[in-house]
Prior knowledge:
This protein is an alpha+beta fold. It is 58% helix and 11% strand. Strands 1-2-3-4 form a four-stranded antiparallel beta sheet, with no helix packed on it.
Amino acid sequence: MNNAIRPRMAALAIATSLLTGCMVGPNYKGAPDVAGAASQQAFHRADALSTAAPAASWWKALDDAQLDRLIDDAFGASPDLQVAEAKLQQSRASLKKSRAGLLPSTGSSALYMQSKGLTTALGGSQESGSEGSSSSASDTMSFYDVGFDATWEIDLFGGQRRAVQGARAREASAIASLQDAHVSLAAEVADAYVTLRELQGRVELAQQNIRVQSQMLALEQARRAGGTATDLDVERLGHQLESTRAQAIPLQAQIAEQLDRLAILTGRLPGQLDAALASTMAVPLPPVRVDVGDPASMLRRRPDVREAEQSLIEKNALVGQRTADLFPKVELLGTVGYGATEPGQLFKGDSLTYIAVPLLQWSPFDFGRTRAGINEAKGEYAEALASYRKTVLGALQDAETSLARFGHQRESVVSLAGVLASAERTSTMTQLRAQGGTATTLDQLDVERQRVSAQSDLLQAKAQLTRDYIALQKSLGLGWAEPG
């Protein structure tokens, strides 16, 4: 570049950097405190639960190694996470593209041109012996040109920087969406696993109940043959046995459904987990101490709330971007090149050419189009603000409802454990009576049937308690991991 123009370009760059410090439109001042939730110190329905900060990997407190492996597999192979990761990749590329808009756009070109014309037009000499007239001999000329060009829109009023703010918010929103996918996936895998273990346990208890009721029916049929029981007594026990069998049949189909659900969640084909999960295992139970933290921390942690806030930031930036359209745009166009008729002459000093053109664009009279665009952006911001408030209130309701269900289900488990303990005491006393000759075998079988039924009720209550624990962890926004 010519030494004479370097000081001018430096001065232009300094002036430009000073001008680009202005940004029109509203600056984001943070999310609103919805109904004072940001200062709320405790959940209303936490009862005796701990306010200590909860652990992100909450499923480890269930102390089930097989469940831990399934969740790890899901995090590594779930299509839902892969979709969220792909969207994050797109948003990061979009942010990079927006940042590039702040920099000059450059290009290069190379040209070879050959023309055929009159030598006199190119300054050729006349032929000797001709008087008062010029000859028109044709000739061929070659021209070579190599150049570099650049365009740069000076961001005088911050429109492009507002676009970068919006792209950065979209990236943060995609990160929150990925984290939310982790939260939902961990909860869904755990729910399917607990349901599977509950169903397997119910099948075993149903088989026990069927055996007991079959023995009772056989005894009643023997009593009828001896004249001490009626047809009605036999029919009643037969109906009860068939009813128990009928209730057990759908459980196998439900087990298959949960096995396939777990397979898909972990990126496998249906049926590929059947052998690994065929053995019946106890339903994992929540820990004695459950940490829930406080509402303010929960709102900062929940990915859906943070995603809603990023939408608010994006729409706020859009208002500024549209406001910048009210003001002039200045674009610098420049090209530097070398041109010559011979390749060897291209890069010599006298072959240098350059052009620098400032271009001013402004549409002060657009019949309200720009103002309409600003108002439209403000409407989008108002919508995002209302959506944010709704998301916050929904998150608080979700947490409080989950806390209430978990607390009451614990009471239900305690109550049903008492029922089972009573049934077991009754079974022991009936056996003692049978040894003393005051209770029949039919009495023992009936008591055993009631004990198995109490076991089934308690099993289902425990499984529901664990599912409520899982729902609680999800409502607290736990389970997400930082993206790579």
